[in-house]
Amino acid sequence: MSLVDIEVGLERQRATLDLQGIVESAAQFLEDAPAREIIRWAAATFGDRLCLTSSMSDALLIDLVSRVKPGVDVLFIDTGYHFAETIGTRDAVQQVYDVNLINIEPSRTVAEQDRDLGPRLFGRNPDLCCYLRKVEPLNRALEPYLAWISGIRRDESTTRIGTKVVEWDAKRQMVKVNPIARWTQEDVDNYIADNGVLINPLHYDNYPSIGCAPCTRQVAPGEDPRSGRWQGLGKTECGIHL
Known about the structure:
phosphoadenylyl-sulfate reductase (thioredoxin) activity, iron-sulfur, metal ion binding, metal-binding
């Protein structure tokens, strides 16, 4: 290993430690801050090295962030398995909001994946399918950034109860900002109604949580909103937020 390599490695270590220090202090003083204030802090701290991700279930997060940081990069993972309504929502978002929408695709098309790993991988090994079509493409797309904004909330599932408004994403070695972590479903519904936010039309057809078409079903009244995801597969998360 050359001296240059050692110096580069040390610089990366210092940068990581600096970011972790930022996370620790921000998580405390922003815990009770309004979502827009959390976003404003992230935009001021990370500038163009900040992006947000969206599954296009709705444009709530996009609406919030674009009001604070117009032209922000929005990453959408086009898995090849999305409902037509989800793709339509993505296209509408690009026309309506002041954002730079970046369409992310897996390294293999669905046809190539079927050829290499066999058809219907989502039914045989959903964790691997999610990794190949969601997690790996997102990891690759996030590499240029220092921080990313997600729309996950504590009330969505037991795996998300401990979500902080600012976290250290150890898997990706970057900062993760969750400005609506404390919001309830009522908060979400009120913001969408008050601000005329675009939503995926599947919500009107009893799809409260929308993922890939083969792994998402309608939910009956009174059921857990995420019960329509990966039904019967013993799976609750795609892996992006784990």
